[in-house]
Amino acid sequence: MKDLNTKKVIITGAASGIGRATAERFYKEGSTLVLIDMPTEQESELKAMFPERMTYIQANVTSPQGLEAIQAEINSGVDVFINNAGITRDATVHKMTDEQWDQVIAVNLTAVFKLSRMCAVKMKEQKSGVILNAASVVAHYGNFGQANYTSTKAGVIAMTKTMAKELGKDGIRVNAVAPGFIGTPMVRKMPEKVITMMEGKAPLRRLGEPEDIAAAYAFLASEDASFITGTCMNVDGGVVLG
To answer: Is the pTM above the cut of 0.85?
Structure first.
């Protein structure tokens, strides 16, 4: 994907897991990176991994200060923006607090809207750009204890389709990626029986890897996907097939 070597790519939630794997993929493609996350302890590690063409910004995507810092990077130009940051605060409906609901909505849905709006303004000026949003397969069929999380991911898919309709005339493509069960470091620490259960739900009988999601983002950001917009790409080993 030679065209990615000229791109400025901004990634939220980039310090670990899928976000870090995505940063690695775009770095290998030659892109210039702006990585956004909250933990400061990750900064030196990321700078060692990406010794050039990388800027790290410690920012909370729900705070005015964090949004202002990200806005400054967008204003200086953005080719690809990946809304990867997300959180969970799981509880069944009758036990879920307002705080658990509000926190997940703020990060997984409201911040995606606000950051995409910033990108839309800049990309309309440029007459080009790609916005990629992190959805989830649970948006399609729900998930026990995740009324807040599944609602945000379903909302992200609907938002993606709406933005694609609105921004296409300006040369802006908007797509989402819906991961299935992915073997992030956090997931790999789960009990073996839980991992086996997750593997058994997918026809391919394995967990995905963060690199699988990164590959999907790289494809959708590239000119190979120049006629793809408004879609949600499931990267799930077939788990949605039931």
So the answer is: yes
